[in-house]
Amino acid sequence: MLYIIRFFPEMTIKSRPVRQKHVKALRGNLRIMLERLEPTISVTGDWDILEVETASDDKNLLEQVEEILLHTPGISLVMPVTKLPLPEFDDIAAPVLAEYRQSLSGRSFAVRCKRRGKQGYTSSDVERQVGAVLMRESDARSVDLRNPEVTVRLEIRDKDLYVIQRQLKGLGGFPLGTQEGVLSLISGGFDSAVSSYQVMRRGLQTHFLFFNLGGREHELAVKEVALYLWMKFGSSHRVKFVSVPFENVVNNILERVDNGHMGVILKRMMIRAADRIADEMGVRALVTGESIAQVSSQTLPNLAVIDSISNCLIIRPLVVSDKQDIIDTARAIGTETFSANVPEYCGVISVKPTTHARKHRVEEEEAKIDFSILEAALADKEVQRIDRVVEVIEHRDVEPDSYQEIPQGAVVIDVRHPDEMDRSPLSIDGVEVMPLPFYQLASGFSKLPSEKQYLLYCDRGMMSRLHASHLKDAGHNNVAVYRPE
Questions:
Q1: Are the beta carbons of 126 and 161 closer than 8 angstroms?
Q2: Cα–Cα distance between 182 and 180 in angstroms, integer?
Q3: 312 annotated active-site
Q4: Which of 70, 73, 67, 62 is nearest to 38 (CA)?
Q5: Vertex 310, ends 304 and 311: CA angle to 5°?
Q6: For residue range 170-189, what is the model confidence (pLDDT) as tens digits?
Q7: Cα separation, 302 vs 290, whole angstroms
Q8: Is 85 a residue whose pLDDT tops 50?
Q9: CA–CA gap between residue 52 and residue 457 (Å, rounded)
Q10: Which of 147, 164, 185, 214 has its CA 20 to 30 A from that of 314?
């Protein structure tokens, strides 16, 4: 199967050196991710398009290839094509007819041709010629140039003809690695997940920073979100997941700070810590999920006081977004279902929160805080590569067993996201397969019969290992991982 990749339009208006840099980065990113699926997949091309080709017609492999292409930043369109040497003008319609005959039956159509090179005829000439043949030789109802039911697409590039089978919308944005790195403050909820996605889509290499207010369960839930985002949109680059224990900092604020200033001061303490960690990592920008006036700490005066503590640029991709728009985006990218299940830990809720914080008053309240507690939290931070978050959070010696062959009587639990299940259902002859998405495992697993053995499955083995480790650490010794490869 051959795919043509078209670039995000903003890439094509860059200067020649910048465009070449972006295309090179995108080509390299795709090679890294696609080679994990199948080492023989090739990625070629440079200026106008990339071509991705696999010798295999295996349906499951092609679905995984398309999944990667459609969720890689920098790609505008993904087009499965049939490529062949350019025929004589009168013969161009034959391969197009072979590709589209069935889909044209009883429907209106229009032909769209793009052309590059010197062929002695125009794109309009090709459209008229091919359209006439299709109308005559197929069961198409009519030609409709304004609102066709089927758009027949082909491209002529020098001495090659590309008959386009489908046109799929890509993610857009810039290739990862073409912009600087950022540190995204992630809580696992709708806002921080979507803001992280937005900067990843824009080509920013995005590390994750989590302030733990709810213990081990909270950390596991947030690691799920970060791992999901990385696997879906950013796995071409290694990034870090940083976890800072912040419960004692919150308790110190609750005990010492005026009630109305608690929310603003908590945010300032987080930004202080993030600033330090970013400096250690060589990162010069922070990302947060705040939106103007969504909560009391997110008024313009309060955000200005919060920002004043940072030496880093603070990026807020959602700053003027409506909550429903944020949720809609979360649904579109696949984070809604498990962000909704991440527990909220509002450790600092003011009864009468200030919406117009003044810097001198905030500093007066901050003077009451024991900053050694913040230093202790930073000293206890945990830094992991994102692809290593499958390690057990507290007990590194708890590693689940992994099976390539399924033991007699074992049940396979498919922990993938429902979108992945729908796209590629798991069916194993003679084996019970139970769909139970990872974000429901914590509550659902304990309800299952304890006398059975369960093997957790996901495409790449990361989410299954993470949850198998967690369940085993919680005392469930009847859980392992199913890795068929």
A1: no
A2: 7
A3: no
A4: 62
A5: 125
A6: 999 999 989 999 999 998 88
A7: 11
A8: yes
A9: 28
A10: 214
Alpha-carbon distance of 318 to 296, in angstroms, equals 16
Cα distances from 371 to residues 252, 273, 298, 367, 378, in angstroms, run: 9, 11, 24, 9, 11
Using DSSP, how many helices (H) and how many strands (E) does the chain show?
Answer: 17, 20
Three-state helix/strand/coil letters over 235-288: CCCCCEEEEEECHHHHHHHHHHCCHHHHHHHHHHHHHHHHHHHHHHHCCCEEEC
Tokens of 381: 């931070």
Q: 34 CB contacts (<8 Å, ≥6 apart)?
A: 41, 43, 52, 65, 68
Q: Which of 228, 93, 83 is nearest to 157 (CA)?
A: 83
Strand (E) positions, 321-392? Answer: 382-385
Which range has the worst mean pLDDT, 19-33, 380-394, 450-464? Answer: 380-394
Task: Please give the pLDDT value at position 349.
Answer: 53
The predicted model scores a pTM of 0.79
Contact between 459 and 430 under an 8 Å Cβ cutoff? The reply is no
Q: Which of 113, 312, 346, 458 is labelled catalytic? A: 458
Contacts of residue 372, defined as CB under 8 A and 6 or more positions apart, other chains included, come to none
| 392 pLDDT above the threshold of 50 | no
Digit-coded pLDDT (tens) for 291-303 = 988 777 788 988 9
> In which residue are the tokens 């490529």 written?
83
